[in-house]
Design goal:
Helices cover 48% and strands 14% of the residues. The chain is α+β, with helices and mostly antiparallel strands.
Length: 168
């Protein structure tokens, strides 16, 4: 490996801190920014940035009391299925054309109950394009593609999924 490819100590420390926060969320269920800062030995702003990254990737959520809790990505099963890999490979050229034509990022996602998992992202060239969400798991109704997937379901099924009715 080329020495220039070695990760910087700062990036390794940041990754280690993020992984430590994931362990806390997994093992204890909640954490506040101040507690995260104390536990990691970093400033509150650094702890907030780390937790915000976990939220953006679906590994944490922040509740009304400003507590961070495990997010849907910690609950979702891995997408190691052969068909998921094949689907990514087949769809990438189409996503690339879509991103080029639309000027915005194009995503491939699957629905997992009330959640979606982004299997692939082709980021558009323009600076205002949406971020890469590949690997992110989030509630389906929080993304336009997730809403489209939910719209394909029978309304009774959607109601049942979100706990508001019975399956028919």
């Amino acid at each position: 490996m080329n020495h220039s490819d070695d990760p910087s100590p700062e990036s390794v420390n940041s990754l280690d801190r993020g992984l430590r926060l994931l362990q806390v969320l997994r093992d204890f269920g909640t954490i506040r920014v101040t507690d995260a800062a104390d536990q990691l030995g970093v400033s509150r702003s650094t702890a907030h940035r780390l937790l915000s990254t976990l939220v953006r990737r679906g590994f944490a959520i922040q509740d009304e009391e400003r507590l961070y809790r495990p997010g849907p990505a910690l609950e979702a099963a891995p997408a190691r299925l052969v068909w998921a890999h094949e689907l990514r490979l087949r769809c990438r050229p189409h996503l690339a054309r879509l991103a080029q034509r639309s000027g915005d990022s194009a995503n491939l996602m699957i629905r997992l109950g009330v959640h979606i998992r982004f299997l692939s992202t082709i980021r558009a060239e323009n600076p205002g394009a949406t971020l890469d969400r590949e690997g992110t798991v989030m509630l389906a109704h929080r993304a336009s593609g997730g809403k489209a997937l939910l719209a394909e379901l029978d309304p009774v099924r959607v109601s049942w999924l979100f706990g508001g009715g019975e399956a028919g």
